[in-house]
Amino acid sequence: MKLFVGKTALVTGAQRGIGFETARAFALQGASVVMTDVNGEGVKQAAEIIEKETGAKTLALASDVSKSADCERAVEETLKTFKKLDVLVNNAGITSDNLALRMKEEDFQVMLDVNLKGAFLMAKAASRSMLRARGGRIINIASVVGQMGNAGQAGYAASKAGLIGLTKSLAREFASRQILVNAVAPGFIQTRMTDALKDEAKARLLELIPLRRFGAAGDVARAVLFLAGEDSAYITGQVLAVNGGIYM
Ligand SMILES: NC(=O)c1ccc[n+]([C@@H]2O[C@H](COP(=O)([O-])OP(=O)(O)OC[C@H]3O[C@@H](n4cnc5c(N)ncnc54)[C@H](O)[C@@H]3O)[C@@H](O)[C@H]2O)c1
User: Fold this and answer.
1) What is the model's pLDDT at position 191?
2) Mean pLDDT score of the chain, rounded to an integer?
3) For atom 38 of ligand 1, which residue has the closest CA?
4) Quick check: CB of 66 below 6 Å from ligand 1?
5) How many domains does the chain have?
6) What is the residue with the minimal CA distance to atom 31 of ligand 1?
7) Is 234 designated active site?
8) C-alpha span between 9 and 38 (Å, rounded)
9) Are 242 and 216 contacting, i.e. CB atoms less than 8 angstroms apart?
10) Residue 196: which pLDDT band, with cuts at 50, 70 and 90?
11) Would 78 be classed as within a structural domain?
12) Rounded to the nearest 5 degrees, what angle is found at the Cα of 130, between the Cα atoms of 65 and 47?
C-alpha cells in the first residue's frame, strides 16, 4: 500500500541530490510532488524523470528560497494546482567553505540567507494553508555540522544550527494546530556537495564514521518520509540524525 496517496509534498532544492531523492520517494509512495529549485531548467527535467518513473503528478517551479516573493508564489502555485499542501521539506542549501579568518562577509551572509532564512520564508508561506487545514508537516534538512561544528564551515554550521533553533520554535508555535515540525540532520552523504571533497579528506572522514561509509541520499529521504507520515504523529521539535554514528 502506498503511504502518501492524496497528499501533496513540496521539496525545495529538488533538482538533484537529497532533494531529488526525497521528491522521488514521495512520488513512489503516491504523493503529488512540487519540486522547486533556483535552477529552473534543471528542476523541470528532474520532475519529468520522476513523473516518467512513478506516474505521480509533479509541478516544477523555478524558485529562490532566499526571496520571499518566490516562496509565496511557490505555495500559491502549489495550492492552485493541487488544492492543498500537506508536507514541506526545506532542503535547499549551499556551502561556501573557508576558514573563518578568510571567509568573506558576503559568503557568510549568503549561507544564512539560503539555508536559514529560506526555510523561515517557506515555512511562513506554507503555514497559512496548513493552519487553515489544521495539520501539516514541516521537515528541515539541517546537518551534523550544525550539531558538532566543523573547522572551515563556520557559516554553514551557524546556518544549520540556526535551522535547528527555528525547527524547535516553529514546533512550539504550531503544535496546537497539529502542524509538526522536525529536522533531519544528515552526516556525510554522497552527493555533488560531498563529491567536492579531496580523497584525503574523504579517507579521514570515513575513519570517524562508525558505520564506515558515507550515507546515500535515499537514507535521508527515508527519514524524511518517516517524519512526514502517520508513524511519527507524536514527534515534533526533534532532530533525527542520519549520520552513520559520527555524532551521537
Ligand atoms: N550532502 C551532504 O553530505 C549533506 C550533509 C548534511 C546536510 N546536507 C544538506 O542537505 C541539503 C541538500 O544537499 P545536497 O547534498 O543534495 O546538495 P546539492 O548541492 O546536490 O543540492 C542542493 C540543491 O539546492 C538548490 N539550491 C541552491 N540554492 C538555492 C536557492 N537559493 N533556492 C532554491 N534552491 C537552491 C541547488 O540548485 C541544488 O539543486 C542541503 O540543505 C545540505 O546542506 C547535505
Assistant:
1) 86
2) 97
3) 13
4) yes
5) 1
6) 64
7) no
8) 18
9) no
10) confident
11) yes
12) 50
